[in-house]
Amino acid sequence: MPSEPDLLFSGVSVLEVLIRGGAVGAFVGLAIAMVRPPLSPARVTGSLFCLAAAAHTLTQQPSIEQTLGFARPLVWAFSIMGAGLFWAFATELFGDRRRLRPVRFAPAALLLAIGIVAVLATGTPTTKGFLLAHNLVGAGLMAHVLMVVWSGWQNDLVESRRRLRGPILAAAALYAVSVFAVQTSEIFWRPADALSPLAAAVLFVLGLAGIGALLRADADLFAPVTEPPALLPAPATAVSDEEATIARKLDRLMREECVYREGALTITALALKLGVPEYKLRRLINRQLGHRNFSAFLNQWRLADARQALADPGQRDVPISTIGLDAGFQSLGPFNRAFKAETGLTPSEFRAEALDKA
């Protein structure tokens, strides 16, 4: 007859299995729900990350992992790539890129490669080194995610995405960093089996929170990024008299006063110049003018200014760096990158072509 401690342990194990099953169901359901049209890089990477989260939930408990059969290698691979896929999801969600490039999966591939080498080296003195390297790479990726979440907060014009930055993605990243810390301690000391039920409960809560936050958010959160709109185009939808007034004031500030040339201009400062609440300006630039990021909105004006100067024969001797800085860019590097991304040419190539046609 099993002793009382055995019964208690059995009860805890069953409860943990149920909780992990609920977490897996939440993550897989979220992965399926995210893959719906219109597809965007954030939807694709988000779905893959949710599958990785489900895989992590399974592989974190060895007794459950052993029951996976032929699917075990695939589940293990998704689990080992989890931090890389989360990084890909976060950088796509907040990066507003129009296309998903293979390089976005490079960190996940690196983590998988390190994991495979660690398995092959099992039992050798180098095993701990490979496991530690895997944890350090993952922790570094999570630290970068937190930096991206924080640094882009002010310029984000998509309200549902601004609300999402803090509570959900930061919590997920902090959980991952905690896992890396525990796993690193296990490499050099002893297994932390006592924390397994707690980890299962946290994963279950994160799964439910993800469903609540990502599926209930407005469609603009995962909207595909289109080509940049024209400078202050006609509003996409009917606007109120107040919004039309704000748009006219904004147009005057941009076209006549060229406030975009102020390198440190923030949306808060621009709202003060217009004399309107910041949230109304955010809503106008995002929903009516079609911009998802305030820096991108400013850069569009700055790049138009720079293109005009570069094509002007009278300014052929003005250094490109001066033109970029005068347009509002704070350094030459961001100017060159933004210019190449929009035109497909470097500023010097653009100037040469434009002056040849003049």
Polypeptide structure, described:
With 358 residues, the protein is an all-alpha fold. It has two domains: 4-222, Rhopdopsin 7-helix transmembrane proteins (Up-down Bundle); 241-357, Homeodomain-like (Arc Repressor Mutant, subunit A, Orthogonal Bundle), CATH 1.10.10.60. Helices cover 69% and strands 0% of the residues. The chain has 16 helices and no strands. Helix 7 packs antiparallel against helix 8 (159-188) and helix 13 (294-310) crosses helix 14 (320-327).
SSE class: mainly alpha
The biggest beta sheet reads: none
At the first level of CATH, what is the class of the largest domain?
Answer: Mainly Alpha
Q: Provide the residue-averaged pLDDT.
A: 82
Radius of gyration: 25 Å
Summed up, the domain count is: 2
Helical content (DSSP H or I, runs of 4+): 55-70%
Number of helices: 16
Low-confidence stretches: 1-12
| Percent of residues in beta strands | under 5%
Q: Could you state the order of secondary-structure elements as H and E?
A: HHHHHHHHHHHHHHHH
CATH topology of the largest domain: Rhopdopsin 7-helix transmembrane proteins
CATH 2nd-level architecture of the largest domain = Up-down Bundle
What's the end-to-end separation, in Å?
95 Å
Strand tally: 0
| CA-based shape | elongated
Looking at this structure, what is the CATH superfamily of the largest domain? Rhodopsin 7-helix transmembrane proteins
